[in-house]
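Workshop exercise sheet. Pairs work together: one partner reads the sequence aloud, the other fills in the structure field after running the prediction. Swap roles for the next sheet.
Pair: D.N. / O.F.
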Amino acid sequence: MAAKSWTYTLEDKRSDCNDAFHRARAYHGKLREICQYYMPHRLPTYDRAGENGQISEGDKRTDVLFDATGPASAASFAANMQADWMPAFEQFFKLESGPNWPAPAEQVAERNRGLQAVTDLAHALMPRIRLNANEMFYDLFAGTGAMFIDAGDKKRQPVTASAVPMFEMAMDVGPDGQHDRWFWKRRHRNRHIEQLWDGDVTIGDTLARKIKGDRNGLTDIVQYTYWNAREGRFDFIAWAEGEKEPLKTNHFRSSPWVTPRLFVSPGSVFGWGFGDIGLPFVKTVNKARELALRAGVFALLGIWMRRHDGVFNPDTAVMSPGAMWKVADTGGARGASIARLPIPQNFDVSSIIINDEREQIRRVTLDDELPELTDRVRSPTEIAGRMRRYDRNRGGATVRLAYELITPMARRVVDIIESHGLLPTRLEIDDILTMATVTSPAAAAQKSGKVDRTVAWMQMTIGLFGPQALAMAAEIEGLIPELGRWLGVEEKWIRSNVDKKALQQAVAQMIALMQAA
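Structure field:
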């Protein structure tokens, strides 16, 4: 029987979008509570978050915050993530030959030097990605972050990036169970729709009338990216709500989406993070501090009673500091004209709870894992110890972040560079012929154990048997460059075998001339 042709209509895509956003409501609800206590500035607004917007730009966002431990932990997490994975003014990945590159070792080293030039170019074109990474890491604190990377103007800004709020996002898995479907819904001004994608949009008749009739109105625009297994590429389609024709279609060799997750439960598309773990403690310390502040105000101002000929009505008595209640009597023989109502003036519970809860928050959000790093240059021992604890406390999240954050980011940037014609040859990061090796401090720490064991073995050999034994037992000429690669040293600073032979010949000639003289 002949295979049926596969069709994926616009109506099918709309249906998948609606289903994905329906399933994402549970995560959005949890995310809203996390943002309320950790990141109130990330709460969605009506203009930007579609159906999830509940507040306007001028609404108050910090009414429930009485303690800064939660927001400080979120800011510390975002800063530490940027320093550990995408440090400023440093390269955090490098391109090198994959395990199946069919060439001798000398040619592999020479190719890696050429790939280093591509690595340098890729990092030079990533300022927008670095700037938006901090926003993405704030969302990652709750469990999942999102960044959309696209090609820009070749001369002005070749690579563009947008940190997409998770309130505007929905994700899903494809038929094969892979995490390869992304939905982005955002409300746009009608008069701005024609300017999307540099004006390369198709405006239908219904939308054209809507834009003409209400230029300042709002319309939901959905951007959907998914893996097309039949064509072996990622397809992109955008449509306006209520339109029968798409606004924009495109396809990419690599996914424009980078959606790292901290921890993922089986069957879940979204991740969960430290903000979720520490939420009970943040809510507790906020309530305790709120009560402590209220008790302090009552202790200072109190609640006062004043005589009144009528009958005291508790329904109209205001429970606020400085309030005055009208009562029939304030004491014996009708009492004084004004008297203070006895209330507790100490709040001992707060001193018991607040400090303990703050410690719990810092512990579960890893805000106090090591002392502050004040030196510009970090010692290898400090980096190794810091990153071993980093990986142990994060329960293996380091591996997930390497494959969901750095690798797809490197693949996407290289594809954009090639699409601009900035590479002399076709280059594809497939992890077979060419691979992107993560060199950020977080990933380098994974190899710190291998470096420590190797150095300890070399030192033990020298200490027990002398330097000559090390030369006989270890292939020093190959081991020393490999140690540099494990530590993330750029390939251009490691001598190739050809350079070594040339240097050895030059030294031999110099010795021969000296002997002859």
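Discussion prompt: The first strand starts at residue 93 and ends at 97. What would you look at next?
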